[in-house]
Amino acid sequence: MELITWLDSYSVGNDKLDGQHKRIVGMINALGEAMLAGNERAALMKIFSDLAGYAKTHFTFEESLLAAAGYPGLAEHRERHVDLNRRLADYYRTFYTERTPQTVEVMDFLQHWLFDHILEEDMRYQEHLAGHPHA
Ligand SMILES: [Fe+2]
Ligand SMILES: [Fe+2]
């Protein structure tokens, strides 16, 4: 079962960024499926750790693209990424220390906070990036 189904309307108009966003969605779905299937904690932690690591890589790449395009909202956008990285690290730590992972809370965060970032905050640079295709 897919928790998030990718739609063409989610595109920010850049193939590389769209590809990375799709991969993040795929990783959120994989974690959700593994949790629903009751997979071992070690397996869940591995997927979560991969997701947090990939999200970090994506944020850095996205920021470099926005910087090259002279995006005026970059500083604010970077703050959102810092916040998301911190939350991902917090959840990972909780995952690591608690005997019972807070499945519902973690999935709620991944689906809403992380995914909404793509659909709302990332979407705001779409127009600017379209005007700077060679950034
Ligand atoms: Fe993004
Ligand atoms: Fe972003």
Main attributes of the structure:
135 residues; mainly alpha; Four Helix Bundle (Hemerythrin (Met), subunit A); elongated; binds fe (ii) ion
Describe this structure in words.
- The chain has 135 residues and is mainly alpha-helical.
- It has one domain (14-130): Four Helix Bundle (Hemerythrin (Met), subunit A) (Up-down Bundle).
- Helices cover 73% and strands 0% of the residues.
- The protein has 5 helices and no strands.
- Helix 1 (15-36) runs antiparallel to helix 2 (41-68), helix 1 packs antiparallel against helix 4 and helix 2 (41-68) packs antiparallel against helix 3 (74-97).
- The longest helix is centred in the middle third of the chain and has 28 residues, at 41-68.
- The radius of gyration is 15 Å and the shape is elongated.
- The relative contact order is 0.17.
- The protein binds fe (ii) ion (2 copies).
- One fe (ii) ion (FE2) binds at residues 21, 58, 62, 118, 122.
